[in-house]
Amino acid sequence: MKVLHLISGGDTGGAKTHIINLLCGLKDKVEVKLVCFIDGPFAEDLKKHGIDVEVIEQRSRFDFSVVNKLKDLIESENYEIVHSHGARANLISYFLKKKVKAKFITTVHSDYLLDFKDNFYKNIVFTNLNKFALKRFDNYIAVSDSFKDMLVSRGFDKDKIFTIYNGIFLEDRAINDKENYLKEKNIAYKDKFIVGILARLDKVKDHETYLRAAREVLDKDKSVIFLIAGDGQDKEHLLSLRKELALEDNVYFLGNETHPYDFLNAIDINVLCSLSESFPYVIMEGGSLKKATIASKVGGIPKIILDGETGKLFEKQDYKALAAHILDLKNNDDERKKLGQNLYSRIIDNFTHIKMAEKHVYIYKKIVSKKIIMSGYFGFSNSGDDAILKSIIESFKSLDPNLNIKVLSKDPDLTEREYGVAAVDRFKFFDVRKSLKASDMLISGGGSLLQDKTSSRSIWYYLLIMKLAKRYKKKVFVYSNGVGPINKIFNRNITRRVLNKVDYITLRDKDSYDFIKSIGVNNPNIKVLSDPVFNLKEASDESVRKKFDINKDTVLVSIRSWMDDEKLIAELSKFLNYLIDEGKNIVFMPMQTPRDTTISEKIATNLKSSKIIDEKYPVEILMSLMKNADFIVAMRLHAMIYAIHQNLPFIGLSYDPKTETLLKDFDESINIDVEAINYDDLLKAYKYIKDNRDSFISNLSTINEENKKKAIEASKLALELLEDDANGH
Fold first, then answer.
1. Residue 443 bridge partners (DSSP)
2. How far is the C-alpha of 355 from the C-alpha of 710, rounded, in Å?
3. Which sign does the torsion angle of CA 406, 409, 411, 414 carry?
4. What separation in angstroms does the CA of 50 have from each of 41, 45, 53?
5. Cα–Cα distance for residue pair 583/253, rounded to 1 Å
6. Which neighbouring-strand residues pair with 7?
């Protein structure tokens, strides 16, 4: 992978430190080059660290002749990603993006609306130019969660934003002795406690709070001195305020500090008073020397300064709180040392330049990897469809960990939280259309999406999504679907037309294949595989098993409401009471809450004893519970599939062609038609299982292994289709 970084080259402080740390971490992981637009110390320092640096000099900020030079560089050296830092580089990237095929990403190091606050002209011109350019990037890296939230609140697409906290390069450093440093700076340090702030003299850094806190401290303790390292446009104002507060003898302005570790080594407490921050390096630099830190509670600072554990926090501009913290730590050596040590440990564990670089590499791979969007019955809290979604995601991730996956969901927040993928509201048409346009492939399925037994709305929705994807010239892969019944002529015709235009169709059973052939689907790319859920692995959870006392005497019941609930409830209640008299423990396992819970409760009121699993558990836990049971009475298709997956004997209550197909292919002796359900047939099926248990389980095991091998093949075929598309086939 080849990545080109762009930066103005006139940067100092945190921006310079960030680039050095990041590129030193990246150089052994990807092929990386830095282009600066200003020649000088920045470029020379990077070269000393072994970074490949090229200066393409701009005569002014509006000298865009550099764009064509960069275009030639990117094309001749085949850079895949252009990574921009700062307003100048962002604007150049805007023009460059139109000329090359590379992906463009920028790191948002600060609140871009505050970057030029101290200069009226620059604030008007450059802030707006940067704001305009930022909107055109493919992706963003925010250096704190608060900065990501800021971008989202300003209209940036949250799916395009990654968060990476800064990392520090803990290299061996030649640090000037404390006494030598203070003598060189002409500071009267004898018998003094030293507080320091290292930050450019800019309003956003709020040195005014620092000075006012100094006045508060000195009114109580004259043995403290305050150092300020940095330069900037707010200097005259701060010098005037120092005089106004009568602090000339106790507050030292040291100017721009080229050796920050010398400064940090010389102080006892490291302070930062910013009004806005990302994830400041000065805290990590001080922490690497085990300095106790006091900082304003803004931006990403609370991510590293855990109040009372790794440092002290105060609300921004609260100089009285800052002063109180300084006095407390000055008078408590043990607490000060503890905070410094804890901060150091937190940095080592979480915020090194290597960890930062590894996260960048992961993001780079995500940026250049293919994007798929998944359409199915997702986000409805249906265990079977949740299992389908989870199994497809897991199989894709096992084959390509960097694949970008987005899901059309009824509940996008729930889907993102439970499955760790991006999601969009399936009913927000413009968001769906935008996501389809940004994708490389639509995955439709699995499940029984194409049927009109319940209504036509569902089949129209899924066919429309496929038609839209083809209109936007995206690959469409039908993933292990069960198709049918489709009774209406119009629905059959539109299904035929759409399926004949998709790129590949995989089906979960032979009946679905026969059905689509019967309605005229002649697509050459059709394959019968199995349900995706066979690819899932169960998760052991003894606490849930013990809570519901699931053991070899447990009969699980998983049903749903259907046409004649009264008959279903009556016959099933009679059968379950018979099992209870035999010593069985009845536990209801709803697959879709609250719908399945309601009918389970109705049956439970007729039973001598029973329990209902009334919480929503992940599919892996539900499957693991089956491993310990005697058998299950299953009505939903995926309750049956879970049972096969766990080699658990089952009685199937068939209400739909999809369950009829599975039961017919497996064993007719345990197939009970819901509409003709009766106690005698249930009892007969139970006795059949009891008498043939060993052969039944052996048959389950064989079917299970066959289906597991087929389950992941759909993902392999989809990725091959994507790869062929990338290679122009």
1. 374, 477
2. 38
3. negative
4. 15, 9, 9
5. 85
6. 36, 85
Helical H segments across 611-654, by residue range: 619-626, 637-645
pLDDT at residue 500, as a whole number: 98
CA–CA distance, 479 with 490 (Å, rounded to integer): 23
Q: Which residues of 89-117 are buried (b: 16+ CB within 10 A; e: fewer)?
A: bbbbbbbbbeebebbbbbbbbbbbeebbb
Separation of alpha carbons 96 and 81, rounded Å: 12
Enter the tokens of residue 442: 């639509």
If DSSP codes are grouped into helix, strand and coil, which group holds residue 2?
Answer: strand
- Element (DSSP H or E) covering residue 375: strand 371-375
pLDDT tens digits along 371-383: 999 999 999 988 8
Residue type, 169: F
**Sheet with 371-375: strands ordered across:** 422-425, 404-409, 371-375, 441-447, 475-481, 504-507, 526-528
| Nearest by Cα to 280 from 493, 14, 65, 37 | 14
Q: What are phi and psi of 619, to 5 degrees?
A: -60, -35
Residue 564: pLDDT band by 50, 70, 90 thresholds? confident
- Residues 6 or more apart from 90 whose CB is under 8 A from it? 84, 106, 130, 133, 134, 137
Give start and end residues of each alpha helix (H) in 351-402.
353-368, 383-399
**Predicted local confidence at residue 559, as pLDDT:** 94
Contact status, residue 343 vs residue 290, Cβ threshold 8 Å: yes
**Residue whose C-alpha is closest to residue 35's, from 64, 63, 3:** 3
Please give the structure tokens belonging to residue 163: 């968060």
- HSE-up (13 A, CA, CB side) for residue 377: 20
- Residue 124 carries which side chain, given as an amino acid letter? I
CA distance 606 to 147: 57
Q: How far apart are CA 525 and CA 714, in angstroms?
A: 12
Q: Which residues contact 244 (CB under 8 A, 6 or more apart)?
A: none
What local confidence, expressed as pLDDT, does residue 253 receive? Answer: 97
Distance, CA of 392 to CA of 445 (rounded, Å): 9
Collect contacts of 12-18 with beta carbons under 8 A, ≥24 apart: 12/42, 12/200, 12/256, 13/199, 13/200, 13/230, 13/281, 14/109, 14/280, 14/281, 14/282, 15/85, 15/86, 15/109, 16/42, 16/45, 17/281, 17/285, 18/85, 18/107, 18/109, 18/166, 18/281
Between residues 48 and 212, the one the model is more confident about = 212
Q: What is the spatial distance between Cα 455 and Cα 83, in angstroms, rounded to a whole number?
A: 50
Q: Please give the DSSP secondary-structure letter assigned to residue 532.
A: G
CA 671 – CA 659 distance, rounded (Å)? 9
Confidence of residue 111 (pLDDT cuts 50, 70, 90): confident
Number of alpha carbons in the 13 Å side-chain half-sphere of residue 448 = 22
